[in-house]
Specification:
Structural class: mainly alpha
Number of strands: 0
Helix content: over 70%
Radius of gyration: 12 Å
Shape: flat
Length: about 55
């Protein structure tokens, strides 16, 4: 999957940043370690989407 994202034209660093952020949010939710609000998580997802779209241009 990472290779596919890189082949879509995203910089490798952005691909890894997105993956690590998603992994972190998953474990925060799953293990209840340093939980964040749903609003904060939504803001993170919006920022990741913006980074993805900017990375493709």
């Amino acid at each position: 999957m990472l290779e596919e994202l890189c082949m879509d034209g995203l910089e490798v660093s952005i691909v890894h940043l997105i993956r690590l952020t998603i992994d972190g949010l998953y474990y925060v939710k799953r293990l209840n370690i340093g939980p964040i609000t749903d609003e904060a998580a939504e803001g993170v997802f919006e920022q990741l989407m913006q980074m993805t779209l900017e990375g493709l241009t």
